[in-house]
Amino acid sequence: MEIEEFKANQREMWGAGDYRPVGRLIEPAALTLVRETGVRAEQRVLDVGVGSGSVALAAARAGAEVVGIDITDAWFDEAQRRADEAGFKLDLRLGDAESIPFEDGSFDAVLSSFAAIFAPDHEQVAAELVRVCRDGGTIGITAWTPHGEN
């Protein structure tokens, strides 16, 4: 399967189901990610794979200016609804973790919770996360491990 076909299949998959229950289950990881990376007021934060907005909202609650990208906009309405209810502004855009549509050094923190791990080329994703993070900034990712939380 070609990479573009793979990504098209992912866009279709993420738009086909109701993943809110899964989002609620992994929301504690989003909160931990934001806390452990030290997101704070006046920082510019990128949430890669924003989905329904758990990381983005946690970062906004910390006072950050938040941009969220995702390979599909299937969950943007849910993320925006949650932001509106909480009184926060999110900037949501289509974007591929392997080719992030921002200039070098655009963000103080670049975060991804159980999202960037689904991209087919992890080395390219890592390079992109580093590229869009400012020098001295923070990159944080959550991912499943073969043996649980260790």
What's the SSE blueprint?
Layout: H1 3-16, H2 20-36, E1 44-48, H3 54-61, E2 65-70, H4 76-86, E3 90-94, E4 107-113, H5 122-132, E5 133-142
Parallel strand pairs: 1-2, 1-4, 2-3, 4-5
Helix pairs in contact: 2-3
Describe this structure in words.
The protein is globular. The protein has a five-stranded parallel sheet with strand order 3-2-1-4-5. The chain has helices spanning 3-16, 20-36, 54-61, 76-86, 122-132; strands spanning 44-48, 65-70, 90-94, 107-113, 133-142. By secondary structure, it is α/β, with parallel strands linked by helices. Helix 2 runs parallel beside helix 3 (54-61). The model has no long low-confidence stretch (mean pLDDT 89). 36% of the residues are buried. Helices cover 41% and strands 22% of the residues.
Concise account of the structure shown:
This protein has 150 residues and is of the alpha/beta class. It has five helices and five strands, in the order H-H-E-H-E-H-E-E-H-E.
